[in-house]
Each structure stands twice: as structure tokens, then as C-alpha cells.
Specification:
About 35% of the residues lie in helices and about 20% in strands. With about 300 residues, it is α/β, with parallel strands linked by helices. It has a single domain, classed as Rossmann fold. The chain has an 8-stranded mixed beta sheet, with helices on both faces.
């Protein structure tokens, strides 16, 4: 299906957030899929390949960057914060509902990794969501923290507390790498460095995007979308990775069981292997089939 891309812009607490609106060339108003990236991700990090497939299937897609990321405004820059991301995601939904060219009664959510947790949390709190797709979702920060190397915890907490104090005093952020070949990082499993690097476009340098304010390490363990999962009324597709080194599969299974209408699909891959290649194709086809059914796309 032919489509075109329009610039999108909306405001959260006086900061302008920017994104891309993918629109199919159609005489009818399509449903819209609101998409957000995972931990420290920008919308240009591999997600356009997903958006193109969704719009080809007859959906409009709103793909945006959180405050402090990409070309969205907001400071501090690169701050990973679940509460802030949830507010941004909610504003993106509200913005999408104002668009005259889409069907505001058919709004679906899509999130991967950290944002997979966001769409589950939002779906548990809002009643205007028609469907949600959570890909390798962060479901329970406490469960995921059990996979963090014990020996690295003191250094991570030192950086996090130092950054929190710096923030209180109005000083520059103390940062921690999202991933690193050696040393401390937010995502520290054996496949995280190469996996995260594979998401970065070839014309970009990983070093330009890898550092985030360290205070996230104080709160990520308490972010637990599973705690609200039984409030979700919308149909949900969860795509999980059987070899995930960041999100325990048992925690994903437990979350899926709490959702009234949940389809759980497992693929025999690691956390970062659903974005490209053979398993991208299997992944995207499952997601398209689910969304077409739940959004009434013929």
C-alpha cells in the first residue's frame, strides 16, 4: 500500500515532542498505532522498518521520541524515566485522537522492551485503547534486577546516588552507559552491547547515544507493569524471547496470565534478535495478523 510521512508535533509540559505520522493513501480513516522505543532508544533506531510494514497493512502509525531524546525538546537530555515516558506516551495518544484523518475509536499501542512495559501500564489505566502489542516487554523491574551481576551493584548505586544528588543541586548529570564492551552499564548481559549496537543506524555512532543519567538505576527495579496487568481490558499480544537475558521468561508468563485477553507468542531468540532478519519477519507477521483482527482491518 502506498503511504506518505508527515511530521508530527505535540507538547508536554511546555516541551515540544516530535515524531513521524505514517499515513496510508486511503479514502477511509484508518486506525492508528502509537509506537514508542525501549530503553534509551530513538524512533530512528530500527523502528521505521516496523512502521512501514504496519502502514502497508492499512494502519496509520505515530512514531515519536520521548522528551530529551532525538529532536524532541526536554531536559535533562537522555533521561530514562518510566513516569516521564508514560506521560509522553499518554500525550502522544491524546494527540493522535485529535487527528482528523484517523479513526480515533481505533487506537492501538506498540512498545518494545522498556516501552513494552509502558504500553501494558497505559492499557491498564486507559479505557480508550483498542489493542496493544508488547514486544520483549519489561514486565517486572524486580525480576529483571535479579539478572544484574551482583558484583556490579555497588558501582551502579554509587553512580545513581551521585547523579540524584547532582540533580537536586542543579548540577550536570552523572551518566552511565546503556551498554558497554567492558565495565558498568545499564544493560550488562553478554549480548547487550552487540545487540543494542545492531539497532543503531549505520550512519550513526553508538558513542553519541549510549550515556544516560545514572539515576535510572534507582527506579528501574521498582517499575513493575505486572502489578497492574489484571486491569487491562484491551486485547494484548506479547511477543517474548525464550533466550532473553534481560527479562526473565517466567515473569513474562506470569504477566500474560494476569491479562484477561492476552496472546503470548514465544520465539527461540535473544532480546535483540526480533528487530532484523529471519525472526523479524516471523515477528512482524504475527503482530500484523493480531492488529488487523483486533482493529477490524479487512
Amino acid at each position: 500500500m502506498k503511504y506518505f510521512i508527515k511530521s508530527a508535533e505535540f507538547t508536554v509540559r511546555s516541551d515540544k515532542l516530535r515524531g513521524d505520522l505514517y499515513m496510508p493513501e486511503s479514502d477511509s480513516k484508518p486506525p492508528v498505532l502509537v509506537m514508542g522505543h525501549g530503553f534509551g532508544g530513538l524512533r530512528k533506531f530500527v523502528l521505521p522498518s516496523f512502521a512501514e510494514r504496519f502502514v502497508d497493512a492499512g494502519m496509520a502509525v505515530l512514531l515519536f521520541d520521548y522528551r530529551g531524546f532525538g529532536d524532541s525538546e526536554g531536559s535533562p537530555r537522555s533521561l530514562v524515566d518510566a513516569k516521564r515516558h508514560l506521560e509522553d506516551f499518554g500525550a502522544a495518544i491524546d494527540y493522535a485522537k485529535t487527528l482528523p484523518e484517523i479513526d480515533a475509536s481505533r487506537i492501538a499501542l506498540w512498545g518494545t522492551s522498556f516501552a513494552g512495559g509502558h504500553v501494558l501500564t497505559i492499557a491498564s489505566r486507559r479505557k480508550d485503547i483498542a489493542a496493544a502489542v508488547a514486544q520483549v516487554p519489561h514486565v517486572d523491574g524486580l525480576a529483571s534486577s535479579l539478572l544484574f551481576p551482583f558484583s556490579k551493584i555497588p558501582q551502579a548505586m554509587y553512580l545513581a546516588i551521585t547523579d540524584s544528588i547532582a540533580s537536586t543541586l542543579g548540577r550536570s548529570a552523572v551518566t552511565i552507559p546503556i551498554v558497554s564492551e567492558t565495565g558498568i552499564a545499564c544493560l550488562i548481559s553478554h549480548d547487550s552491547y552487540e545487540g543494542y549496537k545492531s539497532l543503531i543506524p549505520e550512519d550513526c555512532s553508538l558513542k553519541d547515544y549510549v550515556d544516560v543519567p545514572a539515576r535510572i538505576m534507582l527506579t528501574v527495579g521498582t517499575y513493575r507493569p505486572v502489578a497492574e496487568a489484571n486491569n487491562i481490558k484491551a486485547p494484548v499480544l506479547i511477543v517474548a524471547a525464550e533466550k532473553d537475558t534481560l527479562i526473565p521468561l517466567w515473569a513474562v508468563r506470569r504477566t500474560a496470565k494476569k491479562i484477561k485477553d492476552c496472546r503470548l507468542e514465544l520465539l527461540p531468540v535473544g532480546h535483540f534478535e526480533l528487530y532484523k532478519g529471519e525472526y523479524f519477519e516471523k515477528n512482524i507477521l504475527m503482530q500484523i495478523d493480531f492488529l488487523k483482527e483486533k482493529l477490524g482491518i479487512i
